[in-house]
Amino acid sequence: MLSVGSLKLHKGEVLGVFGLMGAGRTELLEEIFGAEGDETSLQRLDIQIEGKTIQIRSPLDAIRAGIALVPEDRKKDGLFLDADVKENICITTLDNILNESKRVALTDRYINDLKIKTSSQQQSVGTLSGGNQQKIVLAKWLATNPKILMLDEPTRGIDIHAKSEIYELISKLAKEGMGIIVVSSELPEILALSDRIVVMADHKITAEFEASQATEGTILKEAIPKS
What we know:
By secondary structure, this protein is α/β, with parallel strands linked by helices. It has ten helices and ten strands.
């Protein structure tokens, strides 16, 4: 489904990416999404989706190719905290959904589907809990109907109930055929969510495991830089 150098993602698969701080996990996702590096480096990145080479020079190119990225820092990069729930969810579809009633319906759909706890569509996102804020970031990107969803630390700073709901959502989306990449610094999360796991160190992939055959020890061994 997705091929970026030695990184492969299959349809309906949850691919876990683990590495220690500085390994280059976030940078990898940002490069695939066209949000990191200069234009020359992005042109060198060989990205294929469903066997077709794709040129991604900006996030807009990535969105058009069916890629979505839920960033590591939702407050800094994922949300407009002073805006309301509807504005945040619909921001990625403004060019396509011009009718206000359709935006209201879209927002209502994701509030229900993702069990977002909010007093109304007009509630300021900055007043919501971390778990509900993260669900809104997810809703914003799911509204683009992506083929590939990349999640950078998807459960950081949220309560255990919201974490469980996001785990269920990831599983559901994968069963429906979406390819999902999950970056997490929590090894138990990587092992619980993933079908396959790649390990990074020094901005390189150092190992790949089937999740059923991986252990925390074998993953950590490959995550430690050799130099």
